[in-house]
Design brief:
heterodimer; A: 199 residues; Glutaredoxin; two-stranded antiparallel sheet; 9 strands; globular; B: 720 residues; Immunoglobulin-like; 4 domains; 9-stranded mixed sheet; 6-stranded mixed sheet
Chain lengths: 199, 720
Amino acid sequence: MKTTIAVLTAMTLAAGAFAAVEVGQPAPDFTGTTIDGKTIHLSDFKGKIVVIESYNADCPYCHNQYKTGAMQALQQELAAKGVVWLLVNSVNPNNPSHRTPEQAKAEMAAEKMHVTAWIDDSSGTIGHLYDMKTTPDMYVINKDGILVYEGAIDNQPDPFHDPAKARNYVREAVNSLLADKPVEISQTKPYGCSVKYAD
Amino acid sequence: MMAFLVGEAPAQNALPSFNDSLSAGHTQARLILSAEVARPGDTVWAGVDLKMEPGWHTYWKNSGAAGMPTKIQWHLPPGVTAGPVQWPLPEKFPPAEVTTYGYENEAVLLVPLTLAGNLPPGPLNLKANVSWLECSAEVCVPDQTNLEATLTIGGVSKNSEAAALLETWRKKIPQPATNCLVRAWWQTSAGDDTRPLVVAGNFTGVLAGAPPTVSDFYPAGSDAYELQAATEKLSLAGSDFAFRKIVKKFSGDWPKEISGVLVTEADGQRRGYEITVPVGEQPGAGALSVSPASGPPPVTGTVALPLMLLYAFIGGLILNIMPCVLPVIALKILGFVSEARSEPRRVRNLGFIYALGVLVSFLALAAVVIGLKAAGRHAGWGMQFGSPIFIVCLTTLVTLVALNLFGVFEVTAGGKILDAAGQLASRHGAPGAFFNGVLATVLATPCTAPVLATALGFAFLQNNPAIILLIFLFVGLGLAAPYVILSCSPAWLKFLPRPGPWMEQFKKAMGFPMLATAVWLFNLAYDDYGKGVFWLGMFLVGVALAAWVFGEFVQRGRAGKSVAWAVVVILLAGDYVFALEKGLHWRTAVPEMTTDSFSRTAGGIAWQPWSPQAVAAARAAGHPVLVDFTADWCVTCNVNRKIAIEVPSVENKLKELGVVTLVGDYTHFPDRITAELNRFHRAGVPLVLVYPKNPEAQPIVLPQLLTPGIVVEALDRAAR
């Protein structure tokens, strides 16, 4: 419980972060605590492409991406290209799908996740700021801090498909940025489970 | 049932024991059928009955901001075709930021199964794989299962035990919004990727009791945009309901139309109505539309009152040359010739009196429509032709007019019409002109002229009596306009031939088209009275005899006029009692005998009776559908059918494309067809629709006057 309170207090919003999240506009800055207890800001990663993933291990849509290894493969592929990957878990502490930092670390290792940081957002602050609706819900931010993609991970909104055969919008967006091309699909309807925010 | 455990091996270390709530099995599914035994060619309802544990739910066809619609994948034997899933009205689940639509406790998803006509008798095994996402407030679990049911094909159909349950759930499927006019428009110009949309509507006056309260709107899903969950109610002058939704665009252009389900509450009951509304840029421009999943009418463009009044006027003009009104034209021509040598002022006055007759009749019609709407009844153009009593009266009247033209008796008290024209004062001409106006109106109603249909359809859906009145007035003005203009321009009258004995001959000749009209009306009466029309014929002969006695011995007789009068009265009274009352039982017509059993083969086309279910079933089986809404008294309909449908080129096309042909018989004004016509903004027949075989596509509304080319082209489009 102590940890939870510590996490909650650690969650403060940077000034100006109340701006709405909109594709083509600067992504609002935020402050979060990682499961290692470190405090990070979005602005720490200025000059790099950032991917934000809203996550819930128990949601079948997220689970499908991980059990097939597709999400880890994407994380690894993009990490090799210098992309920052922030995983945001906004499940509230009373939900059975909530993860304590210890559980989260174990899950990260077991699933062989390849992310820059897992941010414990059990207060839902970042989730609400970014208007995250579903798990997964994906955001791609360019080197100048502009949001260039928001929405679904891919074009197969069901928890049974083979992600390798789907059209992955995040990979497309990042590759377009790296190739200095405009992002073709910049917004889609996110699919998945609802984010389990605190009431 | 496949249990889908989330987390698997690695999660065991990391997770406390949540396995209980994370395992599947919170929803039980079974497959039920409305029939145990069904005949080849039948449509059987199948239902996937999902029972959820308390606290768990599954999703609607648009699951909302999260979740997944339940999917049904059929594995059916050859000859059995599944139609689209019919979803019962769902509930809306909080929280506000991630609202979803779905079902708690139980939901039966319905699917029409069409059986081919050539299925051999015996049992059939129907299989479906059903997959769904079940969620509680805390977690979501996907699950799936294979379901089976057996249907026996036999000679006599037999309902199953589940039929009643299916019927209960069938009532929960949102219905087409036939009694509702809805408009939608953007509140702001396009800018950001969210935009407020205003939806407003009115219930048309065909509802029994107080209009329901619209409590919410559940949008249909789309990948390109999303109507967010919050429904902000507005109060808007002149609208029964109005609300605002925020639309978020993901890709492409802003939607041109939106669809979804209006949720209403009345008497503690929730009901859903399917609507599809074009979205206008401004409040005024929001086009009207009503519509259903089975086929929203493609009503586009703006419907402004001035335009409708113009349509009404032009429609009235065109009515002059429709076959229904032609006999009256004969009378009018005669009237002009006989008046031609009178003073211009007198001619003009008679023209105006004729117009007055037309207008008064149209006002009376408008009053009837307004009255019926106020009383909560359906109103339709030409509906008086659905009343057998009206038909008997009109047949009698038209027969008398013909006899009058033949010279059997005179209407004017002053003797011959020529005398009346030449010498007698306007008081003799005036009632005649007025009567002609009334007659023209009465005979005009079974002919819905093109153009007029649009305006009348608009009028019949209005709640505002002033608008109904105005539109009817303009139709009347259109009908009367040519005569008023002619009688005001004496220059034109110069070209008329001189009056002379030829006029008497012309008048008699014109009696024959009038007699033809009488025969046509007589024929309509056959539908109501069957063979009893013999007595109507005898009654008409009696009336004719009385008219002759009246003309010969009362009007032209020298002596014994009072005796002749007595004979006329006795003849008419006896005729009435024996022929109409005792013979025909004219006030108690044989109830509609044809409406629902209307199927026949004509010109190689097998017409089946129309019903929304028949349309859905045929489309579900992959057939395009042609629907002909017609009535025996509708001249245009019958002309269309003869020259543009029951012709070899169209018949071959129908066969080649496997088109199912349905006929909706409007002769007796069944309410369900009135409702369907209103849905397409028509107040009457003809209405010919072609439904594409793709059940999602909109029906094609054919024009009022058809050619084989138009029909063939529409069929080709529908088969694509």
